[in-house]
Amino acid sequence: MEQRQKKHVINIGITSVIFIFIVLCLSVFALLSVNSARQSYEAVRRQADSVTEYYAADSAAQRWIHQQKAAGNSGQEILSQDFPISDSQTLKVSLDGSTFDILSYQVVNNEVLAIDDSLPVWQEEMEVLP
What we know:
By secondary structure, this protein is of the alpha+beta class. 45% of the residues lie in helices and 18% in strands. It is elongated, with a radius of gyration of 34 Å.
């Protein structure tokens, strides 16, 4: 009797190929959703920090206004005070010295924003074709 040597052959059918493709697609989508969630979380965290800093400055401004009212007539026409929000923003408050009405209560940017005009954009007039 002859002994036949069995050859081990791996048969990959169309079902296995489709299954591998589906697993790869789901892995890519999972990675994209994790990245999107991380970016959203960081944006929300920055926004929460910004709001917290604003309300801390707002609270300090309100305390200052009440201290000015409690002190009475200051003799000055306009009282003003700056309250830092962040490195780039300040809350500026101005009061009428006699009635203690709020004249201005605004957030001002400390940094001068430069406009980037480095792109070569067409600046000439358009020609009218007959």
